Amino acid sequence: MEGEVKNLIEVLLSIPSSLCFCYFISSRIPRGKYRLLSLLPIFSLFTLLPLRFTYAFPTAVAAFFITWLTNFKLLLFAFDMGPLSSNPPKSLPLFITLASLPVKITNPRKFPIYPSDVLIAISNMAARAVVGLELEPPSNEPYFATSLQDFWGKRWNLMVTNNLRHTVYDPVRSAFKGVLGRERAALPAVMAAFIVSGLMHELLFYYVTRVSPTWEMTGFFVLHGMCVVAELVAKRAVSDRWRLRWAVSGPLTVGFVVATSFWLFFPPITNGGADAKIIQEFKWFADFTKGELILVCDKILRLLY
What we know:
Blueprint: H1 2-24, H2 33-48, H3 56-77, H4 92-100, E1 103-105, H5 115-124, E2 133-135, H6 148-155, H7 158-180, H8 186-209, H9 216-238, H10 246-265, H11 267-271, H12 274-304
Antiparallel strand pairs: 1-2
Helix pairs in contact: 1-2, 1-4, 2-3, 3-7, 3-8, 7-8, 8-9, 9-10
């Protein structure tokens, strides 16, 4: 555990220092290919960071938040788009916070923020918004989804959905708009977003298990992408003339998600025991943190009295 704590400290120090490079150096390079080239070392570092860990839980957290979400935000930043764009100019603490955490600005007039504000936001983000930062909700009552489009687009894993919308869906739709037209261009864009999501899930799973992918997860997302595309085509064909009531479409949607999850998504996780490993390690981490917190409080009390 001590070795893993050391790795954690090294990773936690490397993230803000790398983002400082992005803020002070890359931001001064004109947007586009040259800024993208300047960010390549950061992309590489953030892709390799999860491999620093040996335990599954910190590996999964680093892979999801840094390798996936932060890298994708920096990809948008290369073209001066997304939450890290320099319009309006952002302070360094805000830049680092937006890049490394799933937060969004809810009241930009309260900025710039200061390091103390960031610490408060991090400690309370699971409960409430602080100084204009709000934790992005992970989901929005997915069990009330009326269709797969509703489930994936508006209800499930919203931080990933928003990330993929800006980094994959929008560029692909824009590229195909001149060829297929505005409405039809959405179809390849949807498939591209699901394919990228599947590949990123395979990468995350590899980080945790260090086992070659079986591509079942990619198959899961490709299947759902095809079904969402079919939904879009069907909705345009029937328009508002014929719609299933929620009492029918809701159970069908949730039932399909659950059934395909147990068929394709969960087996790679459960067969290798990765789920049990992460749960056990999370318990160890919680116990370790609790013990360290008690020691810190004890030292503070000794100093005071």
